[in-house]
Predict the 3D structure of the following.
Amino acid sequence: MDNQHCRFCGHELKHSFADLGLSPLSNEYLKKGDLDCGQMFYPLNVKVCGQCFLVQAAEYRRPEQIFGEYQYFSSYSGSWLAHCKAYVDQIVPRLSLGAGSRVLEIACNDGYLLQYFQPYGIPVKGIEPAENVAEEARKKGIEVECRFFGAESAREIAAKDGRYDLVIGNNVLAHVPDINGFVEGLGVVLAPEGTVTMEFPHLLRLIEQCQFDTIYHEHFHYLSLGTVKRIFNAHGLELYDVEELPTHGGSLRIYAAHRDYGRAHMREAVQALLAREREFGLEDVRTYTGFSDKMQNIKLDTLGRLSQWKQEGKRIAAFGAAAKGNTFLNYCGIKNDLIDFVVDSNPHKQGLYLPGSLIPIVGREALREHKPDYVLILPWNLTEEIAETAGFIREWGGQFVVCIPHIRVF
């Protein structure tokens, strides 16, 4: 893993956080004609730096190979869209944004968020590395530049466009191996009095709820507020506010500004959460090294329950062909002999097969056709939304199953 040294501080990596064995890329779905061609599996062993406590996975595939053609489209989750609209509706008045302001989103995906700035008449631009996804954003009337973001590209963007009053990055900070170059780039494109907001899953919640399925090769880093603060500070940016969010099982939204700008005065929420992280043990390496035992317990409980149901002749399906589900299935060794199919609302995934497990991805109509006894919800962060939209499985006595942080049948 980068010669076994931390990507941020260069400290030697000596401590394992989570070893999930071998796994394929979580978003490398297969076509039917490719099922007999084999698939590459890579080690998924995540380590923690004993100096800065940055949790990090090795880089086995370059971001260009992972994100150049992507099958994740943010707009297929109604709850996520509602979350994004609420963000825009509060950030516009909070920062006094208007027609003379400029907004940049890094990894804008299919325009899921920037579209909500349009009614305000605020100029926006997106950066998105996947051309197929960027094209969907352009259909919404959003200007998108198809490229990866880092220090060098940030300088080119700033030279061409000028600097931005608001720079947004949702669930992208964990996806960049060169986290120093990425954060340096934020400062380059940010206007002197501008604000950066970033959302990312909170490492504290990952450990607390044993959310090991959020670990996959596309996620190079797993972040606490304390570690992110160190990284931002190293590049002249100061975290001045933070919000705890329910999204993705528990996320943080940080607000940052140039350190020499008055807005960068740290608010009480930042200090309080830093104290809570220390109390939880996020600056004690022993908190990290005991995580693997919790993962294994969930794996064994899940396999025991699914095997029992299968022996009883029950039909088992899954819902949500999400990356976290692929990590979960491959770590547990669950394949298409235990789960018949997985339902997903994204038509771009339907007709494909999950990586590793080779479970076919189908549309929602398959639930009524095959009437499974149990439906395993893989993206547990969307449990309420899925249970509501697919609640009709109760017509034939079907039940939902969630396995993290423990098995729950309802």
